[in-house]
Design a protein that fits this description.
The structure is a single chain. This protein is an alpha+beta fold and about 200 residues long. It has helices at about 10-20, 25-35, 40-45, 50-65, 90-95, 105-110, 115-125, 135-145, 170-175, 195; strands spanning about 1-5, 85-90, 155-160, 160-165, 185-190. The longest helix has 15 residues, at about 50-65.
Length: about 200
Amino acid sequence: MKVIRESSDDEMVAYYLAGELTSERFGEAIRAELAARHLPEDVLTRPDLGDENGNRARRAVLAATRGYGQDREMFEHFPDDVRWVWAQLMPAELARVRYIEYSYWNELSDGSRLSVDAARRIEKGVRVFGVSNDRFLAAAEAVKRGDRFPPLILAGPHDEDLVCLEGHLRLTAYALAGFPIPLDCLIGSAPALTRWTQ
């Protein structure tokens, strides 16, 4: 892992929301929360990290939609003192990134929580809980075409134990495409993340 530069909680929140804004599954809830708070969408699509009001608003949206800072949902057991950096991960390192502990991802990866195992099962036509794999296959084709995606957001107690915080579909698509290139990722680390990664 090659560290590129330091980042921050505020930058992570901004990228997390921007990544999920385009999600078929989570985008609607984020847009509804923006509307309820009378916030324009560009508070996510063009974030000014120097504007504390904008940072506060984004934190509130992520708290409401995903439990950020409230010890629930995606951020259950997620500590406050996380160091965030931008770093480049090589294909072999990306292949070791695990999914979160969640029934769908556990089943898709046959219990390993590794995207490479999920990719093998998708290629064999395995469907989990009746959910189509078409979105993974379409995203993998986009990766092969060289399309650009929002960065993966990963976290863990150290570099050798990273779990995907945001970007599970993209991680799976990269695995299906054979992890063709290194990726710049936003990575959080803290010893207390051990509990979150389990």
